[in-house]
Amino acid sequence: MDNINENRNFLLSKINDIHKNSYFKMAIIPKLIAVSKKQEDYKIDMAIAIGHKFFGENRVQEAKERWESRIKLLNDIELRLIGPLQTNKVKQALKLFDIIETLDREKLAKEIVKNIDSNIKTKSFYIQVNTGNELQKGGIVVEEANNFINYCINDLKLPIIGLMCIPPENEESAMHFSLLKKIALKNNLIELSMGMSNDFQEAIKFGATSVRIGSKFFGDRQY
Fold first, then answer.
1. What is the Rg, in whole angstroms, of the alpha carbon atoms belonging to the chain?
2. Full-model pTM
């Protein structure tokens, strides 16, 4: 028996408690983004049935197969792309996701601009920052972040509303969340997508406006 309702209530309570005791307690309570990557469909339907609205997917094709029919029936779901986006998947992604969190390079930004029209679903973008400058990980490197943010907002006129990061596994998350917050403040960006199952509590202390949680929400994934 999957205790998704119990898990969700626990997480929402924990998020609220940490937030109200944080420096950012006057801001809006962070959103709980349920990461549905590789979860079974019945778990998704259970989450929707108990009233959850915010979901994150890592792959465009998997999300398309799972969500295309659901979002035709449900107009109050917010679906986010939180995994890497290939340029050849941009058209599909723009028609499927409300928010794309992983804009991280000029080629991708230009492809997005080329495909923006009145029929797309995506209304907002986050820029992913590679705060650990890890070679194997997506995200614009820290040294180029300010220029890239400026380019996307002022030159390409993209609706950039925030930043996203995934800290290195072998380092303290706090310094990466602090760095992302500083970059956001410098560029007048409010939204911060940071923190996952193992470090969301720390992320909220540094001003996260959304946290991305998978296994602690849904239970173990099906691989």
1. 17
2. 0.95
156 is written with which tokens?
């390409």
Which residue, 194, 93, 187, 177, is CA-closest to 148?
187
Residue with tokens 């997508």: 193
* pLDDT (0 to 100) of residue 1: 38
Question: What are the pLDDT digits (tens) for 34-53?
Answer: 999 888 999 999 999 999 99
CB neighbour list of residue 204: distance below 8 Å, 6 or more residues apart:
15, 18, 19, 22, 24, 30, 195, 211
Q: Which residues fall within 8 angstroms of residue 213, CB to CB, at 6 or more apart? A: 11, 32, 33, 34, 35, 196, 197, 200
Q: What are phi and psi of 119, to 5 degrees?
A: -95, -5
Q: Identify the structural domains of the chain with CATH numbers, from first to last.
A: 4-22+29-218 (3.20.20.10)
Of residues 128, 94, 142, 209, the one with CA closest to residue 79:
94
Token duo for residue 108: 């991708």
Q: Is the pLDDT of residue 139 over 90?
A: yes
Helical H runs in the chain? 4-20, 41-49, 60-73, 90-96, 106-115, 142-150, 173-186, 200-205, 215-218
Q: Residue 49 class from Cβ within 10 Å (0-12 exposed, 13-18 middle, 19+ buried)?
A: exposed
CA dihedral 176, 180, 186, 189 (to 10 degrees): -170
Amino acid identity of 121? K
The Cβ of residue 19 has, within 10 Å, a number of other Cβ atoms equal to: 19
